[in-house]
């Protein structure tokens, strides 16, 4: 017979989970779905009258179709290149052991966490007239944009595919080889189909990130190339055509929602392979000979595509008038600069405190979302409901930060929630952008808990609270360092929403870099290179520390 104390404990337990779900749900509703809904109304309702005039005007213009074609075509091409280059990298870095593998893995992940505006500046300095690849004539060319997108998203394929590949039972390929299949045929007929869901999931995410590379296109596209994101910014800030911007934002929201639903479904299919195999193989002389193509491709990507832009950025930031100098860095401390209304040191301070607040908010909400989404209901309906909850909180991952910033401008500018003139709006927007990365970093740690361990604890008399405190929370804590690093690094370099919301007298470092890079003059250009290098180093240091806290044996992305 249940005691009154047990019933009270159970009620408190259920109430706690309701509260844990309501808090992040309210944040998502107010700061994501409300602005998104306002965008929909802006596109379909003008002066209180339902109309499709905005859509008709936007989609009847040849410019719109040219922009859509460039956005989808560039994202698709960059995704294909990432997949072709990333599969060899996944094999080498997740199926083979060799000295220095951890260092190479860290180098591969650094580009993904770099701010897009830094990536744009790095590739801009690589292909301009003074850069090492200047003679190729790719300055202000779409190929530079393509390479920058591949640079930024290469690690998505490597880590998504590699994490699953490391857990595939190697005896499957060995059996095919024993039956007479060549290594290539064994890969194509056995390994590749098993990796299919992971490749498709990684490709979907890569496509989303490529299609929303706002900073890259803003820096490298100039006046010749525009994507949906940059066009939203142009229609909003330059032409003040909010219905047209809303129509483009709605189009992007629909595409992103469909892709995220597909990605979530594909990632569910990859979870069944996570415990099949957790070892990888060393590298013998015979293995090196067999994997020579994989080694060559991966080494070329790491040395040429990943390291060269970053090394060139750092080197050129130290060059002045043909010699080595710290002039560009010293100029960052100058209070008087025609391109800026504040010294760069203030922008650095703004970026740091805003990133700290945003990361704290994202981490607190991400912990609640991860705990709720990691429940293990017995019914199929309950499990589907939790997958849907997880998918909702991952939705901001693929929605343009520009769309988020635009939505805030038209919703959070009047009572009952007037935040347009408040500095709090920027960390809120950045926390929303970082939240999906926090959830993706924490959930795998909770999913890695063996259900039999939880059942054994309950059998031995532990109540729900004690199981949570002694098993689930310690396991969750293993991923907190990585999640905090992702949140802080993402917020530190966020540019899309911040470009809409920052005030001229309180810019962040990415906004300052964009302003400097877009102004003529050697001083401004040198300062842009120095500021971009500084931001890249800050981001890399944060992620290096976070990678050191990565939970062992847990498949985080």
Describe the structure.
The protein has 557 residues and is mainly α. It has two domains: 14-47 and 325-557, Orthogonal Bundle (MetI-like fold); 59-316, MetI-like (MetI-like fold). The chain is built from 24 helices and eight strands. The chain has helices spanning 4-44, 53-59, 62-95, 101-113, 116-127, 142-165, 171-178, 183-211, 214-220, 228-238, 242-270, 285-290, 292-317, 327-331, 344-373, 380-394, 401-411, 425-447, 451-459, 464-477, 480-493, 496-501, 509-518, 522-547; strands at residues 45-46, 49-50, 96-97, 281-282, 319-320, 323-324, 413-414, 417-418. A two-stranded antiparallel sheet has the order 1-2. Strands 3-4 form a two-stranded parallel ribbon. The protein has a two-stranded antiparallel ribbon with strand order 5-6. β1 and β2 (49-50) form a beta hairpin. α1 (4-44) crosses α17 and α7 (171-178) runs antiparallel to α8 (183-211). Mean pLDDT is 80; it is low at 272-278 and 282-286.
Brief sketch in words of this structure:
This protein is mostly helical. It has 24 helices and eight strands. The protein folds into two domains: 267 residues, MetI-like (MetI-like fold), CATH 1.10.3720; 258 residues, MetI-like (MetI-like fold).
């Amino acid at each position: 017979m249940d005691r009154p104390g047990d019933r009270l404990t159970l009620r408190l337990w259920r109430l706690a989970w309701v509260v844990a779900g309501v808090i992040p749900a309210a944040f998502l509703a107010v700061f994501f779905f409300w602005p998104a809904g306002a965008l929909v109304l802006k596109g379909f309702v003008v002066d209180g009258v339902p109309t499709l005039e905005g859509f008709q005007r936007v989609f009847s213009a040849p410019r719109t179709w040219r922009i859509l074609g460039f956005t989808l075509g560039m994202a698709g091409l960059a995704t294909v290149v990432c997949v072709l280059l990333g599969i060899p990298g996944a094999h080498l870095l997740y199926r083979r052991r060799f000295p220095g593998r951890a260092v190479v893995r860290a180098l591969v992940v650094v580009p993904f966490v770099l701010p897009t505006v830094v990536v744009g500046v790095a590739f801009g300095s690589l292909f301009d007239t003074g850069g090492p690849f200047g003679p190729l004539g790719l300055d202000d060319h779409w190929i530079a944009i393509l390479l920058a997108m591949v640079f930024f998203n290469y690690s998505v394929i490597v880590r998504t595919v590699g994490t699953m590949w490391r857990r595939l039972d190697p005896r499957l390929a060995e059996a095919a080889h024993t039956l007479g299949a060549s290594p290539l045929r064994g890969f194509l007929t056995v390994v590749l189909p098993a990796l299919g869901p992971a490749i498709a999931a990684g490709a979907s995410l890569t496509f989303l990130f490529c299609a929303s590379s706002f900073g890259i296109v803003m820096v490298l596209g100039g006046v010749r190339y525009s994507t949906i994101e940059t066009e939203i910014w142009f229609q909003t800030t330059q032409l003040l055509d909010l219905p047209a911007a809303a129509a483009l934002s709605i189009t992007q929201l629909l595409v992103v929602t469909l892709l995220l639903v597909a990605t979530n479904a594909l990632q569910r299919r990859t979870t069944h392979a996570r415990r099949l195999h957790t070892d990888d193989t060393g590298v013998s002389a015979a293995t090196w000979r067999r994997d020579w193509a994989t080694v060559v491709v991966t080494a070329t990507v790491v040395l040429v595509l990943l390291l060269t832009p970053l090394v060139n950025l750092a080197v050129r930031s130290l060059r002045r008038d043909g010699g080595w100098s710290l002039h560009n860095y010293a100029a960052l401390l100058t209070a008087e600069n025609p391109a800026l209304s504040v010294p760069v040191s203030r922008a650095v301070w703004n970026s740091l405190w805003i990133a700290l607040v945003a990361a704290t908010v994202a981490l607190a909400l991400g912990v609640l979302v991860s705990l709720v989404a990691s429940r293990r209901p017995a019914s199929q309906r309950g499990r589907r409901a939790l997958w849907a909850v997880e998918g909702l909180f991952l939705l901001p991952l693929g929605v343009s930060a520009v769309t988020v910033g635009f939505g805030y401008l038209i919703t959070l500018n009047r009572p009952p929630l007037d935040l347009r003139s408040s500095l709090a709006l920027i960390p809120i927007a950045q926390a929303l952008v970082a939240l999906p990365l926090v959830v993706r970093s924490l959930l795998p740690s909770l999913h890695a808990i063996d259900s039999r361990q939880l059942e054994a604890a309950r059998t031995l008399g532990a109540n729900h609270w004690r199981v949570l405190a002694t098993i689930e929370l310690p396991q969750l804590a293993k991923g907190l360092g990585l999640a905090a690093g992702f949140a802080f690094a993402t917020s530190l370099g966020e540019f899309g929403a911040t470009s809409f919301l920052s005030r001229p007298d309180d810019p962040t470092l990415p906004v300052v870099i964009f302003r400097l890079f877009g102004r003529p003059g050697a001083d401004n250009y040198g300062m842009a290179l120095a500021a971009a290098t500084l931001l890249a180093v800050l981001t890399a240091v944060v992620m290096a520390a976070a990678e050191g806290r990565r939970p062992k044996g847990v498949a985080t992305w």
